[in-house]
Fold this sequence. Notes:
With about 140 residues, the chain is an all-alpha fold. It has helices at about 1-30, 35-55, 70-75, 80-90, 95-100, 105-115, 125-130. It has 7 helices and no strands.
Amino acid sequence: MKKTIFVFSALIVALLVLFQLSKYAYWSGDISIEIIIAIIAVIFFFIGIYINKKSLRKKENVDPAINLKKVEELGISQREYEVLVEISRGLSNREIAESLFVSESTIKTHVSNLLVKLNAKRRTQAIQRAKDLQILGI
């Protein structure tokens, strides 16, 4: 978190310095406004590429403690497992539906299937059972 704050603070300071230098260059008559805008656009372009590459590198690592064989034995599908992970994060059905780009009724179906497969009556019991079976890396 501190690293992110530092990076964005450094970007803001660099942009302020760039704007001040461009204002000075413009007023002194050394450079035209079109060139200043082009330089700023190119800098923003490269910053965007850098941030995009940084964000694409982050991949969720599968926790080695997760018992994938048990997930298969219970017959939990990939999508149901994704719903189970989102439930463990404390999200509501609507929030899960938005994050997985499906309807809320589809999430309700997945949740009820999970409750049956995990032999639970409530979502909290399903999460606890998943932890006990080591199929949820929390």
